[in-house]
Protein 1
Amino acid sequence: MQVGENPPYACDRCNGTGRNDEGEIGNINETLNDRLDAILEVNYSNNIFATYNIIEATVASEYNVLSDANKDAYRQIISCGVVDLSDGTEIRTKLWNIFDENSTTRASLITLLGE
């Protein structure tokens, strides 16, 4: 790869050269913060959610009493970053199995889904 080729994963501020249009070395922290803000502010459509929403909906006391297997399943779901919580999806089925119908966490997730 040649410097400045602008590969698909290159920074749009420096086209992979590490320098901006003025020839200055870019501020990596500024670039990373801008990218992170963009990721966190994405508005996913329908029942596609960033998993931080699931974390915010989770009641700590309900999580604390989960079995080790359910905690592992929960952590796997959260590690995805973005999940589809549409009816019938494996992720939603797992979450509903982890948090029963009487849990505040499930009620919060249902509210998140707008149901």
Protein 2
Amino acid sequence: MDVSNYKEKYGEPKTLEEILNYCAFLRGVRCLEHRTLREFDWFVSSLIFGKTEYKYTMTNLKSKDPKSLEYKLTKRTAKDALKIYKKYNHIYNPCGQDSLLKYARAFLKYCEKEYGYNDHG
């Protein structure tokens, strides 16, 4: 099933559950898998803590050797979180009763960009 067929069958995702299910579909899993929830958790954490988390992570690395695998992976993860923060935080800085839904909408935009879908098909 492609994206247009998905939206014909299920409609435009509006609720938190619909958005997360659609993101799971975009990621190539049939239903809401734990990996999609894990990525949503990482995404929201990046939105909230991305800037300070990057500084903290890079300051407190166990291995200071830039050639070590731990250093490379930790730095990459921290940089990815910082990119999410910079790209989406100023637009989706939620406050109020619908903040989780706002995070989900930001995650939807991220998934559409990250996994290759755009409005032009």
Protein 3
Amino acid sequence: MEQENVERVSAQLLEVLDDEGGKDAVAELVRQWATLDKLQNRYEQYREKHGDEKAVDQKNEAQQHVREAFDPFLPHSTRV
């Protein structure tokens, strides 16, 4: 259902946008949306495996790995 909504709204946006930058942004949104399930699964796996982790170093390392999966989805995020 969500994918159908994204496709419908994306098609509407492409109809009304008259600049290439806007159309590129819509295409990027659709591309990123297609990876949402993968990201959700990766995050759930992280929570199941490390949610109760007491060792800070291990939890931090696991958080860094899960964050790497999100980096392409959030290209403007900054790494600290």
